Amino acid sequence: MGDDRVKNEAMEIMGMFQVLPRLVVFDLDYTLWPFYCECLSKRDMPSLYPHAKGILYALKDKGIDIAIASRSPTSDIANTFLEKLGLKSLFVAQEIFSSWTHKTDHFQKIKQRTGVPYTEMLFFDDEDRNINAVSKMGVTSILVDDGVNLEAFRQGLSKFSQNRSSLERNKQRWRNFSQKSSSSQEL
Q1: What three-state secondary structure class fits 27?
Q2: Cα–Cα distance for residue pair 28/95, rounded to 1 Å
Q3: What Pfam families is this protein classified in (predicted)?
Q4: DSSP single-letter state for residue 33
Q5: Largest Cα–Cα distance in the chain?
Q6: For residues 98 and 96, what is the distance between their CA atoms, to the nearest angstrom?
Q7: For residue 35, with 0-12 CB atoms within 10 Å meaning exposed, 13-18 middle and 19 or more buried, which class applies?
Q8: Which residue intervals of 16-149 are DSSP H helices?
Q9: For residue 184, is pLDDT > 60?
């Protein structure tokens, strides 16, 4: 499937949801591309998973910001690859650094840089430990098995929509509870 076909299908998928994330964050290694940066050199020509580029451009065209959270120990290679692929300018934040924190530091920096609350973010990664840690921050997180693809994208948007609906219901319950509490105190 070509990049344009993937992009069009990703646009159709986004059209199915009333609520979309303000920011979508991607891991690099084994999420956007099928390798570890540290196993290659800057001279190599990288490639993306087949659906990755179309999904990135669909998000951009829809006005949804995108960012990177990568624990790669070779940020210089990762940045070179993003430039070679013509993608570097697409991302509003690029947090690429080695860390033992399962990406919580990455997300704190992304939130600080973008001002987007965690509950308005969607994250794709290939490691359970990162998914678990970042989910606890309030970010909707999707584990990808073999890179990001249209099915994972659909799953992510669906889970994001469900999480946002639950959040809104809980806010409404709290407002109702607060109103009842304050009116019963007045009696």
Answers
A1: coil
A2: 11
A3: Acid_PPase
A4: B
A5: 75
A6: 7
A7: middle
A8: 52-62, 75-84, 104-114, 128-135
A9: no
Q: Which of 3, 27, 44, 125 is catalytic?
A: 27
Whole-angstrom Cα distance, residue 105 to residue 122? 16
Burial of 144 (0-12, 13-18, 19+ CB in 10 A): buried
Backbone φ/ψ region at 87: left (φ over 0), alpha (ψ -120 to 50), beta: alpha
**Average pLDDT for residues 132-149, to the nearest whole number?**
96
Give the C-alpha separation, 63 to 133, whole Å: 27
Predicted pLDDT at 164: 84
Per the annotation, the verdict on 125 as an active-site residue is: no
Is 145 among the residues known to form the active site?
no
User: pLDDT of 108-121, one tens digit each?
Assistant: 999 999 999 999 99
**Rounded Cα–Cα distance for residues 103 and 154 (Å):** 23
Compute the average pLDDT of residues 16-31: 96
Catalytic residue among 3, 4, 29, 44: 29
End-to-end CA distance of the chain: 66
Q: In whole angstroms, what is the distance from residue 138 CA to residue 120 CA?
A: 9
